[in-house]
């Protein structure tokens, strides 16, 4: 490998890694001076001139002209008689600059060693720049392309071909990506690991929803509407608490958009995650009521010291308050900071129970069939006699009688 090829290769390397010309020249000069210092026991007498773009390298050795009999160190001094052979007007005390033939002085092995040193230095520099870039972007959204899919993580590359990682645990459960897909995620962490930059992305972090709202809702981006808090069960449900600093703007309406136009894009990105946008208030009773939406609350008993809330509602609202797998009440508690217990309020209300609460006793397809004829609660089914239910649902007589028996038992207890 000759010197021109050495410099040419690093000109290309610079372009790929987006290292600026001045930094590249500084690295090259420092590396070559280090080599010269080891060989000549000092590099201060050398000038290293590098043109990275053209692949030019010149090394000039500077020595002081001394009388022939007074020479002590040929590395830093040159005899007058030898200097006159270069130019016939040199005098004692002047400086002579001679270009060093690098290949003759160092040979192939030394050139390869220099190349390895340069690779290491430039990789370290690029690594540090990538780390700094992403440390400054923690919590921000990035777009990256999938280039390798592993069992426990997906490897991506940004526009500068920097490697990023999206672990399985940081993906939404319904996420599915293939090579070449463009992925949106927030930067979760950026650290040095095994002497390499380790950039981890996340699609389940609450900050991901915040950034998506900033993208889709101009009022959030401009700071007119503030996102106070986000809690979520990734891929299932999220609650976003918002506040407007302009009384003329309804923060919930602005975030949802006309006919859901603004929130639809966010929901699609989150794999149809159900998003409740809640208007913030300092009135904790009202905030609890809003956070348990879509259930309707009858009354609330608060214990501010213990941060607990007893919430009363009609029996038909209980399942709505609890939500699928308990997500709704769990997220409402996380959003408000209160431990919530739901109680049935049966005063002045004919007790009834949603059909969905019998899913552990009645097959789901049977419940769906009954709901298909307008029966959403236990009493709405019991109001229809068995023969009529068979005709209207095409269910077997035995199935209908079993359902009626289960529903009747609920109210006999």
Short description, anyone?
This protein has about 425 residues and is α+β, with helices and mostly antiparallel strands. The chain contains 15 helices and 15 strands.
Describe this structure in words.
The chain has 413 residues and is α+β, with helices and mostly antiparallel strands. The protein folds into five domains: 3-126, N Utilization Substance Protein A, Chain:P, domain 4 (2-Layer Sandwich); 137-202, Nucleic acid-binding proteins (OB fold (Dihydrolipoamide Acetyltransferase, E2P)), CATH 2.40.50; 213-278, K homology (KH) domain (GMP Synthetase, Chain A, domain 3, 2-Layer Sandwich), CATH 3.30.300.20; 281-351, K homology (KH) domain (GMP Synthetase, Chain A, domain 3, 2-Layer Sandwich); 355-412. The protein is 41% helix and 25% strand. It has 15 helices and 15 strands. The strands form four sheets. The chain has a five-stranded antiparallel β-sheet with strand order 7-6-5-8-9. Strands 1, 2, 3 and 4 form a four-stranded mixed β-sheet that branches. Strands 10-11-12 form a three-stranded mixed β-sheet, with helices on both faces. A hairpin with a 4-residue loop joins β1 and β2 (56-66). It is elongated. The chain starts with a helix and ends with a helix. The model has no long low-confidence stretch (mean pLDDT 85).
Indicate the topology.
Layout: H1 3-17, H2 21-40, E1 46-51, E2 56-66, E3 77-79, H3 80-86, E4 95-99, H4 102-135, E5 141-149, E6 153-157, E7 163-167, E8 182-193, E9 196-202, H5 206-216, H6 218-221, E10 225-233, E11 237-244, H7 251-256, H8 261-269, E12 274-279, H9 284-291, E13 299-303, E14 308-313, H10 315-322, H11 327-336, E15 339-344, H12 364-372, H13 378-382, H14 386-393, H15 397-412
Parallel strand pairs: 2-3, 11-12, 14-15
Antiparallel strand pairs: 1-2, 2-4, 5-6, 5-8, 6-7, 8-9, 10-11, 13-14
Helix pairs in contact: 1-4, 2-4, 5-8, 9-11, 14-15
């Amino acid at each position: 490998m000759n010197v021109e090829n050495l410099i040419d290769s690093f000109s290309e390397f610079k372009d790929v890694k987006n290292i600026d010309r001045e930094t590249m020249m500084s690295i090259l000069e420092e590396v070559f001076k280090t080599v010269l210092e080891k060989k000549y026991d000092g590099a201060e007498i050398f000038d290293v001139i590098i043109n990275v773009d053209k692949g030019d390298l010149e090394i000039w050795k500077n020595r002081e002209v001394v009388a022939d009999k007074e020479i002590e160190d040929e590395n830093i001094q040159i005899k007058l008689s030898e200097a006159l052979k270069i130019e016939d007007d040199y005098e004692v005390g002047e400086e002579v600059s001679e270009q060093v033939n690098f290949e003759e002085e160092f040979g192939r092995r030394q050139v390869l060693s220099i190349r390895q040193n340069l690779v290491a230095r430039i990789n370290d520099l690029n690594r540090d720049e990538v780390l700094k870039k992403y440390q400054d972007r923690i919590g921000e959204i990035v777009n990256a392309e999938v280039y390798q899919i592993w069992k426990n993580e997906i490897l991506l590359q940004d526009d500068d071909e920097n490697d990023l990682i999206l672990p399985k645990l940081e993906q939404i459960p319904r996420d599915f990506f293939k090579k070449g897909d463009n992925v949106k995620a927030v930067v979760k962490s950026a650290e040095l690991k095994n002497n390499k930059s380790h950039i981890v992305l996340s699609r389940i972090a609450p900050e991901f929803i915040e950034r998506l709202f900033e993208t889709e809702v101009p009022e959030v981006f401009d700071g007119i509407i503030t996102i106070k808090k986000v809690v979520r069960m990734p891929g299932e449900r999220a609650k976003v608490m918002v506040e407007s600093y302009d009384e003329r703007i309804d923060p919930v309406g602005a975030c949802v958009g006309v006919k859901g136009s603004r929130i639809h894009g966010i929901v699609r990105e989150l794999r149809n995650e159900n998003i409740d946008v809640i208007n913030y208030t300092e009135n904790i009773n009202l905030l609890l009521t809003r956070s348990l939406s879509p259930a309707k609350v009858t009354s609330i008993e608060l214990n501010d010291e213990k941060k607990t809330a007893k919430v009363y509602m009609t029996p038909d609202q209980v399942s709505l308050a609890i939500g699928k797998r308990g997500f709704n009440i769990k997220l409402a508690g996380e959003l408000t900071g209160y431990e919530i217990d739901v109680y049935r309020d049966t005063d002045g209300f004919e007790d009834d129970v949603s059909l969905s609460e019998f899913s552990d006793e009645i097959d789901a397809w049977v419940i769906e069939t009954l709901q298909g004829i307008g029966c959403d609660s236990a009493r709405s089914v019991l109001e229809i006699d068995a023969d009529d239910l068979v005709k209207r649902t095409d269910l077997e007589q035995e199935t209908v009688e079993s359902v009626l028996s289960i529903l009747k038992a609920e109210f006999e207890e």
